[in-house]
Amino acid sequence: MDWDDLRIFLGVARTGSLAEGGRALRLDPATLSRRVTRLEAAAGAALFLKSPRGYALTEAGQRLLPHAEAMEARARAGVAALSADDGLRGRVRIGAPDGVANHVLPAVLARLRALHPALGLDVVALPRVFDLGRREADLAITVSPPKAGRLRVRRLCDYHLSLAAHRDYLAVRGPVATRDDLRGHEIVGYIPDMIFDADLDYLGEVGANAPGLASNSASVQLGLIRAGGGIGVVHDFMLAAAPGLVRVLPGEVRLTRAYHLSRHGDAGGPLISRTADLLADGVREEVARLEALSVG
């Protein structure tokens, strides 16, 4: 499967539509449909579920997505490396939830800064929604796409979360064979009245009890779980850097969310636009790399 095939795959996966994907790829929907059919034949698997609501990824498509995104990011990074001195000068402030700010952005921004030494980058890591209209940040990474304001929003990538606990905790408290077994265990999670995005209500989706140990910070929750405080939902991209943690109910519980990147519609000009492109590529590549480590 070559890059041109993966470009077609990503265009449809990100928009969920032949019409929208065609506009992004500058192909008419009929041509795009033929390309998708040919791609699925070459892959030997259905990559999309087609319905009146659009194109949704199948399980095979979900498996292909992070690899396609990583290849896209490497291709763009190569182009950027050839033109590192492209006039990116100034300072850009990036707002992000603390999980992605602590575990994904450091490597991404270090590489970006190495390529563009005249570009200053600020990271504001707060567990809340940023107000781009008030210029709290130039770019904001969010889970749910913002709906209010004159914003330009793009979908970055899917990421995954798993139930996890420290192996020492499980050795003392006993294994978890079913979701019903969770009722007999300590739970770590978000402070219920401080969940600022409905997509962060992981425990409600898993069916676990209210947390005995709670924080508004995903990184603090990880620390509580590593300390043996109980079972909680952990980003897969954090697991590679958390020795001692093991997945709980891995065949039954794995959540999928998506990151989105937003900027104000009239803010920043070429500097913000170009930085947004490079940031998007870097986040996709780093999430795919870390998730691959967590299962390897």
Structural summary, described in words:
The chain has 296 residues and is α/β, with parallel strands linked by helices. It folds into 3 domains: 3-60, Arc Repressor Mutant, subunit A; 80-156 and 258-295, Periplasmic binding protein-like II (D-Maltodextrin-Binding Protein, domain 2, 3-Layer(aba) Sandwich), CATH 3.40.190.10; 159-257, Periplasmic binding protein-like II (D-Maltodextrin-Binding Protein, domain 2, 3-Layer(aba) Sandwich), CATH 3.40.190.10. Helices cover 44% and strands 22% of the residues. Helix 8 links the parallel strand 7 (187-189) and strand 8 (213-214). The mean pLDDT is 86.
* CATH topology-level fold name of the largest domain: D-Maltodextrin-Binding Protein, domain 2
Number of strands: 11
Biggest beta sheet summary: 9 strands, mixed
Fraction in helix: 40-55%
Q: What's the CATH H-level homologous superfamily of the largest domain? A: Periplasmic binding protein-like II
List the SSEs and their pairings.
Blueprint: H1 3-15, H2 18-25, H3 29-43, E1 48-51, E2 54-57, H4 59-82, E3 90-96, H5 98-103, H6 105-115, E4 119-125, E5 139-142, E6 151-166, H7 167-173, E7 187-189, H8 202-206, E8 213-214, H9 218-226, E9 231-235, H10 236-239, E10 245-247, E11 254-264, H11 269-295
Parallel strand pairs: 3-4, 3-5, 7-8, 7-9
Antiparallel strand pairs: 1-2, 5-11, 6-9, 6-10, 6-11
Question: Can I get a quick summary?
Answer:
Residues 1-58 form the HTH lysR-type domain. The protein is 44% helix and 22% strand.
